[in-house]
Amino acid sequence: MPVRRGHVAPQNTFLGTIIRKFEGQNKKFIIANARVQNCAIIYCNDGFCEMTGFSRPDVMQKPCTCDFLHGPETKRHDIAQIAQALLGSEERKVEVTYYHKNVTSRSSAFGGYGEPKNYVEFEIEEDFLC
Questions:
Q1: Is residue 129 part of a domain?
Q2: Burial annotation 73-94 (CB, 10 A radius, 16+ → b, else e)
Q3: Are residue 92 and residue 52 in the same domain, yes or no?
Q4: Mean pLDDT of all residues belonging to the chain
Q5: What CATH number does the domain containing 26 carry?
Q6: Is residue 127 domain-resident?
Q7: Regarding predicted confidence, which is higher, 91 or 10?
Q8: How high is the pLDDT of residue 121?
Q9: 126 in a domain, yes or no?
């Protein structure tokens, strides 16, 4: 997969390096621009699209808080904690229920025994603000 595919940002070799590194590890991820309003998503890989059921155009330019993955069992308190951590550039662990595009039940976030199926990690690094 070419690095530029799904990339909506000025070309930056640093971002290209990050994308290649994580693509090679079979990770599902997004990259957002912390310098624009709502920390808009500027890149999402195929794995993230497959995991969420959303196409790349559906995901691009959405807020990195992934509001589009919220559902009936997503708690407002969890949403607020994620937003606060992103705004304050602080590390915080939050368990949140996110939903697949075509699934509206709890099974979208949990496996058969109540174990989490997927983990989402938000990471903000000052070095990424090029």
A1: no
A2: ebeeeebebbbebbeeeeeeee
A3: no
A4: 74
A5: 3.30.450.20
A6: no
A7: 91
A8: 55
A9: no
User: Tens digits of per-residue pLDDT, 1-30?
Assistant: 455 555 555 566 777 877 887 777 777 888
- Please spell the DSSP secondary structure of the chain, one letter per residue: --TTTTB-S---HHHHHHHHHHHTTT---EEE-TTSGGGBEEEE-HHHHHHH---HHHHTTSBTT-GGG--TT--HHHHHHHHHHHHHT-----------TT--SGGGTB-TTS-BS--------GGG--
Position 42 in a domain = yes
Q: Which two tokens stand for residue 122?
A: 């938000």
Do 38 and 75 lie in one domain? The reply is no
Quick one: average pLDDT of 67-86? 88
> Of the candidates 18, 56, 62, 59, which has an alpha carbon nearest to the alpha carbon of residue 38?
62
Range of the domain at 99: 65-120
